[in-house]
Structures are given as C-alpha cells and as structure tokens.
Amino acid sequence: RQMAFLQRMGFQPVFAGDLLKPLPLRPIVITFDDGYANNFSKAFPILEYYGMKATIFTVGADNDRGRDGRLTWEEMRRMEASGLVEIQSHTYDLHTIDAQGRFAEMPVPQEKAQQWQARIVSDLTKQHVTFERELGHAPTVLAYPNGWYDAALDDLYARNGLVLRFTIEPHIAQADDIQRGQVPRIPIFSW
What we know:
The chain is of the alpha/beta class. About 40% of the residues lie in helices and about 15% in strands. It is built from 7 helices and 8 strands; from the N terminus they run αβββαβααβαβαβαβ. The strands form 3 sheets. The protein has a 3-stranded parallel sheet. The chain has a 3-stranded parallel sheet with strand order 6-7-8. β7, α7 (about 175-180) and β8 form a beta-alpha-beta unit.
C-alpha cells in the first residue's frame, strides 16, 4: 500500500547515493536498515512490481557471518543487478550496544581520540574491502547505526569517503542538509 500511495502521489524514487546529482520532480529515497532477509523475500518483489528504487543499508559483518535473518551477498548482488536496489553501509561491525548502553561508535572510557579514530576507520576499511569484494563497489553513503552520531564522528566519516550520512532525525531533507552531508529521514515502521 505504501508503494502504491507514493506512486499515485507522483513521487520519483532515487537512490541515496544519487542525492548529490540533479533530481527529478518529487524525489524520494526509500531506505531499509540492517539488511534483513525480508528485504529480499518481501520488499524486493514489491519494489519490482511498482518499479520503485530503494537503498538498503547493511551491516557487513552480519552478512559475512551468515547471521540468521540477514541478507546474503548473493541476494544483494541480485537486487543490485535489477537496477532497483542500491546497497550502502550501516558499518561493518559497529551496530551494537554494550552493557553500559554505549553505542559501538562512541569512544569507550580511557580510549584516546587517536585510538577511537583508528577503530572507526578500521571498521570503515573492512566495510569498503568487503563491499568491493562482494558487490564490486565501495559504499559512499552510511546510515548511522541506532541513529547515534556526533560532530567528530560525522567529520571522520565525511573525511573518509562517506559523502552522505543518513540520520533518524524525523524531518524532510532539505538541500542544505544534503549539501552538509547529513540526511534526515522520516521513519515508517511496519510493526
């Protein structure tokens, strides 16, 4: 129903990675986070039916480990080959929360700034290498895991090739958001 509504209203789906290009009238970016298996089994057939594009942000380590309920690299290759799906980064292995409630991208106590930066860049490098190996391209867009970020993290990702970073701040993205590289999203949950 949601895709039919968007189509009826004249929205033109574009990939997240296309936001810095000239856009059609009424552009919309449809995103799915975490790389769940039902993105292939349930969402993809709907996207095919309506001819709608979407971006899936996946956690590379989950895919490499064959985590139950997550997409396989083969499924992602098939969806990208359709021209309807773009796969982008949700980090390689930083989509976790520790026992103290800290998100994995946050500095840990006693971690020096250089150590923190090295840890984040190491994860980013793993994701780039994995994407190149499995999908034939490096990610250029990231969705922040759990929506957490700060200025230092955003700057670090921007300096390391992630030109757009998607947040979960609930408002419609404006041109200045996109130029800044921080793209808000309006979440729609199905549960």
